[in-house]
């Protein structure tokens, strides 16, 4: 690693000040991406601002019709929370599929959405559930927050403080994980509610998480796995790497979507 100054603020104001003191300062959440990047000497921040000591960034609550989860809540807490299991069980199930126990005990919701890895799980849930990402400066709908591969609408020094998930309707998540990393090679989150049907896909596209409009339209006409027969994303737009071709990932998306729809249809 390169040398850096380490800060562990106790309040959000202290964190903001530490980040503002240097253009090269970086916030540290769970460190599941940043720490390996530092070890490989691919990043050289002047300062690391550890957000783990800020109580205001933790907590899981229900406020009216919203599930509000603090940015520094760890994956294992989402997976095992009775509140999440009661009000949004699909999100608890998704969190339980992230990585392995070591990753789930260190990684955080805020760190995941801020990093926007194209194979991360939470962005699909945020997009399908029409979640709002709350920062220390503003509130952003998920559709405006995720802007591309490893890209978000976050400005320099801006800190994710919480994510608000609207409640109501039914949802489920189906994932085909890479057997080594447990990252999604294709993950499909399907929600059906008063606002219609939303299908969000992660792990497959070169552009990162996306809503699959063709699947949403087909399911709006008839909610069943058969409605998706013959549908799959364009292979040319999918990731092609040592783990699989674009056509392979497109097929995985189609299969995961059918499984998700079948699960929801069977639950009624």
Automatic annotation (TrEMBL):
It comes from the Bacteria. InterPro entries: CO_DH_flav_C, CO_DH_flav_C_dom_sf, Diverse_Substr_Oxidored, FAD-bd_PCMH, FAD-bd_PCMH-like_sf, FAD-bd_PCMH_sub1, FAD-bd_PCMH_sub2, Mopterin_DH_FAD-bd. PROSITE patterns: FAD_PCMH. Residues 1-170 form the FAD-binding PCMH-type domain. It holds the Pfam family FAD_binding_5. Keywords: FAD, Flavoprotein, Oxidoreductase. SMART domains: CO_deh_flav_C. The keyword NADP does not apply. PANTHER family: XANTHINE DEHYDROGENASE SUBUNIT C-RELATED. This is FAD binding domain-containing protein. It comes from Ancylobacter oerskovii. The lineage of its organism: Bacteria, Pseudomonadati, Pseudomonadota, Alphaproteobacteria, Hyphomicrobiales.
């Amino acid at each position: 690693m390169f040398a850096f100054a380490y800060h562990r603020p106790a309040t959000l104001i202290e964190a903001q000040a530490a980040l503002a003191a240097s253009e090269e300062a970086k916030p540290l959440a769970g460190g599941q991406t940043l720490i390996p990047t530092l070890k490989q000497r691919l990043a050289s921040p002047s300062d690391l601002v550890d957000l783990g000591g800020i109580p205001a960034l933790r907590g899981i609550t229900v406020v009216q019709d919203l599930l509000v989860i603090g940015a520094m809540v760890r994956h294992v807490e989402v997976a095992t929370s009775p509140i999440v299991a009661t009000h949004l069980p699909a999100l608890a199930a998704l969190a339980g599929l992230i990585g392995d126990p070591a990753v789930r005990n260190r990684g955080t919701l805020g760190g995941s959405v801020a990093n926007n890895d194209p194979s991360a799980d939470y962005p699909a849930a945020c997009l399908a559930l029409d979640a709002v990402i709350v920062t220390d400066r503003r509130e952003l709908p998920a559709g405006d927050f995720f802007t591309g591969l490893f890209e978000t609408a976050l400005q320099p020094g801006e800190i994710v403080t919480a994510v608000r998930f609207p409640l109501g309707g039914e949802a489920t998540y189906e994932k085909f994980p890479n057997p080594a990393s447990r990252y999604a090679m294709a993950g499909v989150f399907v929600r059906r509610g008063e606002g219609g049907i939303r299908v969000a896909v992660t792990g497959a596209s070169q552009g990162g998480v996306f809503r699959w409009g063709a699947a949403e339209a087909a399911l709006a006409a008839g909610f069943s796995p058969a409605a998706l027969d013959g549908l799959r994303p364009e292979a040319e737009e999918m990731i092609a790497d040592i783990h699989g071709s674009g056509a392979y990932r497109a097929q995985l998306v189609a299969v995961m979507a059918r499984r998700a729809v079948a699960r929801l249809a069977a639950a009624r």
